[in-house]
Design a protein that fits this description.
Chain B: Belongs to the archaeal Rpo11/eukaryotic RPB11/RPC19 RNA polymerase subunit family. Chain B: Keywords: DNA-directed RNA polymerase, Nucleus, Transcription. Chain B: One of its GO terms (cellular component) is RNA polymerase I complex. Chain B: GO terms for molecular function: DNA binding; DNA-directed RNA polymerase activity; protein dimerization activity. The complex is a heterodimer of chains A (370) and B (104). In chain A, the strands form 4 sheets. In chain A, strands 1, 2, 3, 4, 11 and 14 form a 6-stranded antiparallel β-sheet that branches. Chain A starts with 18 loop residues before the first helix and ends with a helix. Chain A is of the alpha+beta class and 370 residues long. Chain A contains 7 helices and 14 strands. Chain B is an alpha+beta fold and 104 residues long. In chain B, 52% of the residues lie in helices and 24% in strands. Chain B is built from 2 helices and 4 strands; from the N terminus they run E-E-H-E-E-H. Chain B has a 4-stranded antiparallel β-sheet, covered by helices on one side. In chain B, a hairpin with a 5-residue loop joins strand 1 and strand 2. In chain B, helix 1 packs across helix 2. The N and C termini of chain B lie far apart (64 Å). Classes of the chains: A alpha+beta (370), B alpha+beta (104). At the A-B interface, helix 2, strand 3, helix 3 and helix 7 of A face helix 1 and helix 2 of B.
Chain lengths: 370, 104
């Protein structure tokens, strides 16, 4: 950029930032060597010397905040969150990954396992299976709690590969939900010979009668996850107990495959790029951000057609040729947010739940302080 | 838990079972409050689930300011949630409409 004396800068109306400072405030500048102006100016009095108030005003926030859904599927969604500070976007992301509860297999009671997969490896594989049950309908189970219908889901897996038959592949759809709880009896209760032997769980009612589990039985989200392979004569018999937990304890409880955001790329042509140079500029970009526009009389001009696709590889400004023509920036308060759910809850529900958790945190602090 | 001195305008608040998620957002909303002279947070030890938030104000009691910041954050969250659900609903309606047009 050309150096200009301070005295030659144009007058700026009261209550507004000079354009170059506004640009530094709202954009990350992606220069060929390194990005600059990456920090966010949070301090309320940062611009008080030029008469600009940088404090948080809820009215202002309400006016500026926007959400635009780009893609919404059963398991993933992409949306733009505009007008929000990165600290909030990051809080939502962190909560999605580590603080939203789901159900996952925590205890595995193995009666028989003669497969090649060792007990502990098999248990670990079982733990990682996403389970299609709404975690909001269950309670956390603390160490002293008995496994009951409101905190535990029990699955049974019993497969045997007959001698003389072909090898078997054990998949997640062979996990059968036991709405009445465990079927394995406790060894100590066998001696008493009561009518109903005590098992590893104490269910008072069948889970089928609760909520609407009878209409939508609990099962793994995906039926085709391979758990093990059995050779002739091998057998697996086990019970798996799933409980409610959070991603910060173990990643198996994370409700998202991943959740991430990126800032919106902004590609600006500072000067007109024409004819052969335009063609050359279009060719330098590996993701086709630029396009060519006919301006008539056989003249051509480069335009920025798909800035969203820009990966900021900086290939276009690596050579000296276009350094003066192209500016790569990122919009600091525009986040392209992507959520990939593991299947227990749809992604839009996950996001609203995440925001609710942050609200709960705030409320807790308020009650603690007053 | 609050660790202050006789001077109410400067305090350190210690929250257990919290991390960057809350502390960083609180620091953001505190910094945007004109009554705050300084604020910052630290996690004294990575294996202890605790954050310390330091708030120094221009005169008003620090816990009042922190409470207000939490309230602001709460309102922001509620507004974001509301806006988000509206956007999702709009998108779903649009998709349903598109699907209907295709069938015709």
């Amino acid at each position: 950029m050309e150096k200009v004396s301070v005295w030659d800068l144009p007058d700026v109306p009261e209550g507004q930032l000079p354009s170059h400072i506004q640009l530094q405030r709202t954009r990350v500048h992606c220069n060929p060597d390194a990005p600059t102006h990456t920090e966010n100016v949070q301090y309320s009095g940062a611009y008080s010397s030029v008469g600009v108030d940088n404090s948080l005003q809820l009215e202002q926030f309400r006016k500026n905040f926007r959400v635009e859904v780009i893609r919404l599927g059963k398991e993933d969604m992409e949306f733009d969150m505009i007008g929000v500070d990165p600290s909030l976007a990051n809080a939502f992301r962190r909560i999605l990954i580590a603080e939203l509860p789901t159900m996952a297999i925590e205890k595995v009671l193995i009666a028989n396992n003669t497969s090649v997969v060792q007990d502990e490896v098999l248990s670990h594989r079982l733990g990682l299976i996403p389970i299609n049950a709404d975690p909001r309908l269950f309670d956390y189970k603390s160490e002293n709690d008995d496994p009951k219908e409101n905190n535990t889901i029990v699955f049974k897996l019993h497969v045997r590969c007959e001698r003389g038959g072909p090898r078997l592949t054990v998949k997640s759809d062979q996990l059968k939900w036991l709405p009445n709880g465990s079927e394995f009896s406790l060894e100590t209760s066998a001696a008493k010979s009561t009518a109903k032997p005590k098992t590893y769980t104490t269910f008072h009612t069948s889970q089928e009668t609760l909520h609407d589990f009878s209409k939508k039985p609990i099962a793994p989200c995906h039926p085709d996850i391979i758990l093990s392979k059995l050779g002739p004569g091998q057998e697996i018999e086990l019970e798996a107990h799933a409980v409610k937990g959070m991603g910060k304890t173990h990643a198996k409880w994370s409700p998202v495959a991943t959740a991430w955001y990126r800032m919106l790329p902004e590609v600006v042509l500072l000067q007109q790029v024409e004819d052969e140079r335009a063609e050359k500029l279009v060719k330098t970009c590996p993701v086709n951000v630029f396009d060519i526009e006919d301006v008539g009389k056989g003249k051509k001009r480069a335009i920025v057609a798909r800035p969203r696709g820009c990966t900021l590889c900086r290939e276009c400004i690596r050579e000296d040729e276009f350094k003066q023509d192209v500016a790569l920036r990122r919009v600091k308060d525009h986040f392209i947010f992507t959520i990939e759910s593991t299947g227990a809850l749809p992604p839009e529900v996950l996001f609203t739940e995440a925001v609710k958790i942050l609200e709960d945190k705030c409320e807790r602090v308020i009650t603690e302080l007053s | 838990m609050e660790h202050g001195s006789a001077d109410e305008s400067a305090s350190t608040f210690s929250f257990t079972d919290e991390d960057h998620t809350l502390a960083n957002t609180l620091r953001f909303s505190l910094n945007q409050d004109p009554r705050v002279a300084f604020c910052g947070y630290s996690i004294p030890h990575p294996s202890e689930a605790r954050v310390n938030i330091r708030v120094q104000t221009t005169g008003v009691p620090a816990n009042e300011v922190l409470k207000d910041s939490c309230q602001d954050l709460l309102m922001i969250c509620q507004h974001s949630r509301h806006t988000f659900s509206l956007a999702v609903q709009d998108f779903k309606n649009e998709q349903a409409l598109k699907a209907m047009n295709v069938e015709e």
